[in-house]
Amino acid sequence: xxxxxxxxxxxxxxxxxxxxxxxxxxxxxxxxxxxxxxxxxxxxxxxxxxxxxxxxxxxxxxxxxxxxxxxxxxxxxxxxxxxxxxxxxxxxxxxxxxxxxxxxxxxxxxxxxxxxxxxxxxxxxxxxxxxxxxxxxxxxxxxxxxxxxxxxxxxxxxxxxxxxxxxxxxxxxxxxxxxxxxxxxxxxxxxxxxxxxxxxxxxxxxxxxxxxxx
Length: 214
Ligand SMILES: Cc1cc2nc3c(=O)[nH]c(=O)nc-3n(C[C@H](O)[C@H](O)[C@H](O)COP(=O)(O)O)c2cc1C
Hints:
This protein is α/β, with parallel strands linked by helices and about 210 residues long.
């Protein structure tokens, strides 16, 4: 049982990274071997629409042909039994590197044929961790839930069952005054970091443990 963690946050040691690590620790408890890859350590682009992965006459059918730092990761993910991917919300979406990863990861398995749903010959379960400033009760009215559901649909179609995991109102910086972030209540955020974030970590651990026991 191999589970790959993919950190789509540029910040190591912050919210997203911590939650992914917790999920991977849970996966180890569940009996898995794990590996964590930081997308921002890699140099890669999004899909370049070369269509090699769709060529019926090619040995590369179903596999991204772009040769950059993402290629070995895509191969590792395909060989894995589970994925823990995490991204901060940037402008209502995943980060640019997460998006570039997803473009290539998902597109290689997409078919435009009526007969076949996905070129991936197995199903890989995924835990998708989002972190953001957004309060829990804004997720629905601000359209975040619909966005997350889009990812759920995409994974369900091309990869396997997706479990969404959201950590809201995260601590964004250590010292809010230093950055003029007066629209946030720093004391409340710090309190939340002490009281709620550890519960998010526990949930992430449990999600990783459950993922490893599939
Ligand atoms: C460029 C940028 C855009 C952001 N946009 C959003 C947003 O649209 N919604 C939100 O809830 N948080 C937004 N945030 C806040 C981050 O999602 C939040 O601080 C997150 O937990 C950071 O993750 P990290 O600690 O792993 O880096 C944004 C942060 C940055 C730097």
